[in-house]
Specification:
Length: about 575
């Protein structure tokens, strides 16, 4: 317990922490320990022999230390209670998961208890790194605890200390990898050896979870359970103590989840590999950028699938958290977002800039090759693709000074008949090729008006998806790509009009990484799915490219410029 004052070198306002015996420290959490024993399903004797020593060693290492200075679990024994609660919920989560799913039944029977114990240890030690990076502990004589060498309880006993004091390091950064160095002081080597028997995956997954290093080639179920439990426990503590401690720092613990989600997307989602068509990420000579808020919707969908508590819903909140954490950087004028013009876009897009490309791309294979161009551009900049015809009768006049060129094809100009036979007048000097191929057309003079086309020459309408923002981002992107194929030749169309709307084959959705069941639910949620019958299934069968094909019918109201009468009947819907 805390005393009312402390004498000596420390002021009375810092009473410090009592150097209690370790059994007394652990006794303060008897209720939670009892719940852990019931969750393990072990007899009292077996629990006391196999699990209780782990709890005593953990209590001996963290003693009465708070988890944070003024945020979640900031009271005495905060780190002890945080570890025990996360360990309990992580262990509880193992009941709904199958580990080693590719192994035989007999092998799973042998490995299952080891997986459960490893998951419990992962939750127990998930915040050990804070002891090594965020605080300094001293006793009454001013001696400093060597936290890499000995547990706090043993050090206090060896110095016959009655109280100890905590000083928080200013501007400490989260270094989860340090937790691995404290692990031998909490978990005996014999326990790790038991976990490693008859397998080569449990201990690596445990260390990956504690250190915060993802396993890119294998799904780490253990870490997923620990991350979900930690988010739940921290969120509940912040909500419970909001009135008692003033204004808690909601969301300050979510940086790791947001960064982890972006890394998982960068390593596993084709739409996040930099510089690909329709990619969220673009790597240029001036850094790595993520299109925003499209990338935020992907992160939110991934974390919602993980069922993490307290994850921000708004891209603006997510942006503020990552800017404050130093993951994203602002513009020199203080603006939170940037504008970029990747090669495949015609107009500038809003984006965020990462402080370092390694935050997202470290360990991702194959490595991304940066573009040789600068991506940053002014807001509203447009890329022009108009080319000068090869049969132009004369070179274009030189624009007045200060005017930038549109994007031209220098080869066409240089090889045109007029350029080969007629030299330019002496008063006109051709522009150098570097100016001719300039990317941006900010101040180009408008071209002369062209006569209106005849009805027979009128261009077909440009079709574009205009779905509600609440539609699942992955489904929206896939449908947008499918709708855009209708603007090209008929042989390239990935969908076809029917009487009720636009028929989208299920195979086209799967080709773009969207499961048909997810697409059907997402469209139904926003009222854009046209059912075949009132009580019938969501799918219909239609004649698509001469073959009976199963697909979904999307309501035409979400497609700008869509008129079934303007198309030849490419699909026939079966009744």
């Amino acid at each position: 317990m805390l005393s009312s004052a402390s004498h000596g070198a420390f002021p009375a306002s810092d009473p410090g922490f009592a150097a209690l015996p370790v059994p007394d420290v652990l006794a303060s959490a008897d209720g939670l320990v009892s719940r852990i024993r019931l969750c393990f399903g072990l007899s009292r004797d077996t629990f006391d022999a196999e699990v209780q020593p782990l709890l005593q060693r953990y209590a001996g290492y963290v003693h009465l230390l708070p988890a944070t200075a003024d945020n979640y679990f900031s009271s005495p024994a905060g780190l002890l209670n945080l570890g025990l609660e996360v360990a309990f919920y992580s262990l509880q989560g193992t009941d709904a998961h199958i580990f080693s799913g590719r192994s035989t039944i007999s092998a799973r029977r042998q490995l299952e208890p080891r997986w459960r114990l490893a998951t419990f240890i992962g939750g127990l030690c998930c915040e050990l790194h804070r002891v090594l990076s965020h605080l300094i502990v001293t006793d009454e004589a001013g001696g400093e605890w060597p936290q890499f060498l000995v547990p706090l309880g043993d050090w206090l006993a060896s110095r016959s200390a009655t109280r100890y004091f905590v000083r928080w390091r200013p501007n400490a950064t989260e270094s989860r990898g340090l937790g691995v160095f404290a692990l031998p002081l909490v978990i005996p080597g014999a326990t790790l050896q038991y976990l490693a028997q008859d397998n080569s995956i449990i201990v690596p997954h445990l260390l990956s979870s504690i250190s915060g290093q993802p396993v890119y080639r294998d799904h780490n179920v253990l870490d997923a359970l620990v991350r979900r439990s930690l988010a739940l426990v921290v969120d509940r503590n912040l909500q419970a103590n909001a009135d008692r401690y003033g204004v808690p720092q909601f969301g300050s613990h979510l940086e790791r989840y947001l960064v982890d989600a972006m890394r998982r997307l960068a390593s596993g989602s084709p739409s996040w590999f930099p510089n690909r068509e329709k990619s969220r990420a673009w790597l240029g000579s001036d850094g790595l950028f993520l299109l925003w808020p499209q990338a935020a919707h992907d992160v939110q969908a991934l974390l919602e699938a993980d069922q993490l508590a307290g994850i921000p819903k708004a891209p603006e909140t997510m942006l503020d958290l990552l800017l404050e954490a130093g993951v994203f950087v602002q513009q020199p004028d203080g603006a939170s977002t940037w504008f970029v013009l990747p090669p495949e876009l015609k107009t500038a897009a809003e984006a965020v800039k990462l402080a370092s490309p390694a935050i997202l791309l470290n360990g991702v294979t194959p490595p991304a090759e940066p573009l040789t161009i600068s991506l940053v551009c002014p807001p509203g900049a447009m890329r022009t693709t108009q080319k000068t015809p090869a049969t132009a009768p004369a070179p274009a006049p030189v624009p007045p000074p200060g005017t930038q060129f549109s994007l031209l094809d220098a080869t066409d100009v240089a090889t045109s008949p007029a350029a080969r036979t007629s030299p330019p007048p002496a008063s006109q000097t051709p522009a150098p090729p570097s100016a001719v191929v300039a990317d941006l057309a900010v101040q180009s003079p408008p071209p002369p008006p062209s006569p209106p086309p005849s009805p027979s020459q009128a261009a077909a309408p440009t079709l574009k998806l205009n779905a509600p923002m609440r539609l699942n981002p992955a489904v929206r992107d896939a449908l947008a790509a499918i709708v855009s194929t209708l603007n090209g030749p008929g042989s390239a169309a990935a969908a076809a009009p029917v009487a009720a709307g636009l028929f989208v084959p299920l195979a086209e959705l799967e080709r773009r990484g969207v499961q048909p069941a997810l697409a059907g639910r997402a469209l139904a949620d926003v009222g854009l799915l046209v059912h075949a019958g009132r009580d019938g299934p969501a799918t219909v069968t239609a004649d698509f490219r001469g073959e009976p094909t199963i697909g979904l019918v999307v309501a035409p109201a979400c497609i700008d410029g869509f008129d079934p009468a303007a198309f030849e009947p490419a699909a026939h819907e079966e009744p």
